[in-house]
User: What shape does this take?
Amino acid sequence: MAGNRRVRRVAAVSISRLGFPRHSTETSMKKLLITGITAISFLFTSFSQPPYDCYFPFEEGISFQRTYYDATGQITAISNAGIDSIAKMGHFYRAFIRDTMLDDKNKEIGHRIFTVDCTDDVIHLSANQLLNPCMTEAYQSMDMGISGEGIRIPHRLVAGSELPKGGNRIDVTSEGLEIVTLNFEIVDRKVEARELITTPAGKFECFRIRETVQFQTMFLTRTYTTLGWYAKKAGLVRQETYDQKGVLRSRMELTVLGMGR
Assistant: This one.
């Protein structure tokens, strides 16, 4: 479906009183009108998917579910997400994603709308999109402002290569009052190997990426090692998180991937 596009309606613009002298030619006015409408229409163009083969399910209408487990295999949280729309924003594409998070009893613990950007060579993600929802569950009813470069996943991965570091700062506020600041720094990112991974959502050809995640607030600092398996057109299909002693603390798997809600 690459290249398919749907143009949204654009409100009509009156140009009857733009201040042009009466001797302006009809041809010039027509050219101006056509150029203006074309430019406005381009800004409001929606695409079903960008023309890039990337490590994310970057397609309008697609839904994906990620299930989070503790070290014993018990479910701790579920994320049900879907791409509502994709828009071309100049030199890159932006996906608008709605996400509903559930606890282990299938009770909603929060929801959010976030974006993922795709250029001709990388996918841009924010650090909190890859975290277990339980880590920020206490702040779901508050306002969270996210800043920073996030992380980048190149469209072309090679085993043995290193990836640039990334990270985000999340400022949590409630009714204008600052509650806490969460800092995530992701370093030592390396593409380790290519592997075939099976999850409830299917079989995927993946690249395994090892990263060090440094999590810091005013009260505590923690360092984790994560292993993430990324597949084309699916994104992160499995993730394992280890503490500083190398003990598995949690894991995530892609459990549903498909079109529709």
In short: Residues 1-10+23-47 form one domain. The chain has two domains: 1-10+23-47, 48-259. The helical segments are 26-43. The CA atoms of residues 2 and 26 lie 39 Å apart.
